[in-house]
Amino acid sequence: MEKTWYLKRINIFQGMSEAEMKQLDGITHMKHYDKKSLIYLPGDVSDQVYLLKEGRVKISKISEDGREITLVILEPGEIFGESSIVSNDQTRSSVAEALENAYLCIISRRDFEEFIHKKPELALSITKLMGFRRRQIETMLEDLVFRGVHERIALLLLRLADRHGKVVGDKKLIDISLTHYDYANLIGSTRETTTACLNDFKREGLIEFQKRKVVILNERGLKERAKYED
Q1: Which of 129, 144, 159 marks a domain boundary?
Q2: What digits encode the pLDDT tens for the residues 139-189?
Q3: Nearest CA to 92 among 153, 21, 42?
Q4: Are residues 108 and 202 in the same domain?
């Protein structure tokens, strides 16, 4: 099945010619991953780049004491697995897991390197993307050091709403199913503490739960809890 129509939706590939898109289509193959399937682990050989077609993928790190820290949740149209290749690392340093049933377009390391060698502007776009993600991680680490758990949870909900939110009347649904354990991993806390904070926000009328999804009822109040600055 031709994948050109999908590849055109990926930001870093926009602006390429039809011939270049067909070349890219020719070096990718599609693979399905079931929900909760592991795509790669730390120490795995870094020999592929992934383009997310459908579903969501979680990228996380394992700390020295064995705790999982979620770095980002990726949406369709995003690329991942490219950083270790661009930085010339031979093995993975993070975990990639399918949060939902996912379809990925996969490119081998060799084909990817040859392709970006011919497209220096693509290499620049990937470098900028890596820089943006690095700044996101730095911000998250600063939050861990300087913010309390209630602030971190409030900030996380606001960021998830920006990235995955849907407006429903005067409310905003975070349209992604996460457990309290997932939320804890996203803010570097325990499940018990995270659950207590979420329940506090519910009692305060800031949020409500719809199964494993959070609905923001009072965005202004949540921003006050987060000490959020526009």
Answers
A1: 144
A2: 877 787 778 999 999 999 999 999 899 999 899 999 999 999 999 999 989
A3: 42
A4: no
SS3 97: strand
Residues 62 and 154 in one domain: no
Residue holding tokens 């470098």?
127
- Residue 201 is classified by DSSP as H
Does one domain contain both 22 and 96?
Answer: yes
3-state DSSP assignment of residue 91: strand
Please write the tens of the pLDDT for every residue from 59-79. Answer: 999 888 888 888 889 988 888
Q: What's the order of all strands across the beta sheet hosting 68-74?
A: 38-40, 95-98, 57-62, 68-74
CA distances to 18, 110, 123, 147 from 22, rounded to whole Å, are 6, 18, 18, 48
Which H or E run includes 127? helix 120-146
Is residue 23 within a helix (H) or strand (E), and if so which, with residue range? helix 18-26
Report the CATH number at residue 170: 1.10.10.10
Structure tokens at 184: 């804890």
Q: Are residues 133 and 54 in the same domain?
A: yes
- Give the list of residues 6+ apart from residue 79 with CB closer than 8 angstroms, or none: 10, 12, 49, 50, 51, 52, 126, 129
Q: In what order do the strands lie in the sheet with 213-216?
A: 165-168, 171-174, 213-216, 207-210
């199913």: which residue's tokens?
177
Three-state SS annotation for 92-104: CCCEEEECCCEEE
Rg (CA), the chain: 19
